[in-house]
Amino acid sequence: MDPSVTQVRQAAPPGLEEYNPFTDAKPTRMAPKAAAPTINTQPAIMKPTEEPPAYSQSQPQDQSGVAAELLRRQEELEKKAAELDRREREMQSLSASGGKKNNWPPLPEKFPVGPCFYHDITVDIPVEFQKTVKIMYYLWMFHTGTLLANMLGCLAWFCVDAVRGVDFGLSILWFILFTPCSFICWYRPLYGAFRIDSSFRFFAFFFVYICQFGIYVLQCIGITSWGASGWISALTGLNRSVPVGIIMLLIAALFTAEAVLSLIMFKKVHGMYRTTGASFAKAQQEFATGVMSNKTVQTAAATAASRAAQGGFKEQI
After folding, report:
1. N- to C-terminal Cα distance for the chain?
2. Helix 242-275 with 127-160: angle, nearest 10 deg
3. Average pLDDT, the chain
4. What is the per-residue DSSP string for 28-87?
């Protein structure tokens, strides 16, 4: 027998040689198959990760608030557009009539002296700065009225105490001096600064207005023989006459309110100045440009240059 066949017979598993397919022996039982998984025929439903917000009555209120805000902004834009149209018409009428004419101070036509300045906030000042300039103008008027009241208070003090003639005289001087000087020295620079966005005029306003605030504080204190019905003078006058002292106390309160309002407006104007892009370098440049463009300065410079050239030419000869 072939050795390979013998090797296969020896390697065969036991029981395979005795197997007879024609016998009645029952075949070995097969292991039961695993049951197939049941298939869900229902459609898949995806659950949202976040629950939708519950309906509340605040949503219509929020929508109505947004709508009101939009309406308010639309009204503001319409007002600004109407203001710009009005200013454009006024500028056209001014150009047709030959330019702007001075209208401040408002004086009668038959008065021997005419107005010195052109003053119209709604025409010259941009819309976003008009409110601030108007408040400063009203503050200047309040300053003028307080100086007038101070003069009357010092007059009443002089009537009950003849020694206070110096205070009455100085109060007249302060009224005559500070009324026009305050308008020219700090209000007009502020007006021009907002009108043409001038850094130099802003710095001029800040410098003068700081000095003006110091004067307000001194007038509020009211040192005697300084011509101001401040707190010290009012208490002194109260010892002399109660009605006069009460009047002077009211004037001292006006000086105090004036100092406080001036400080508030100074901070507000300084904050607006920082948003306009003005700077000290621009102020220097504007000052140099203004000086060099001045005809008087140009004439003086040309005269000095010609004299220097003539002197050098004579020395060479």
Report:
1. 150
2. 160
3. 79
4. PPPPPPPPPPPPP-SPP-PPPSSPPPPP-THHHHHHHHHHHHHHHHHHHHHHHHHHHHHH
Tokens at residue 208, please? 């003068």
Q: Please name which of 227, 220, 254, 241 lies closest in space to residue 164, comparing C-alpha atoms.
A: 227
Residue 216 CB contacts under 8 Å (≥ 6 apart), including other chains: 255, 258, 259, 262
Neighbours of 272 (CB within 10 A): 16
- Dump pLDDT digits (tens) for 37-78: 555 555 555 555 555 555 555 555 667 778 888 888 888 888
Regions of the chain short of the pLDDT cut 50: 8, 25, 31, 291-293, 297, 301
Distance of alpha carbon 215 from alpha carbon 209, whole angstroms? 10
Residue 198: CA count within 13 A, CB half-sphere = 20
Residue 117, beta-bridge partner list: 104
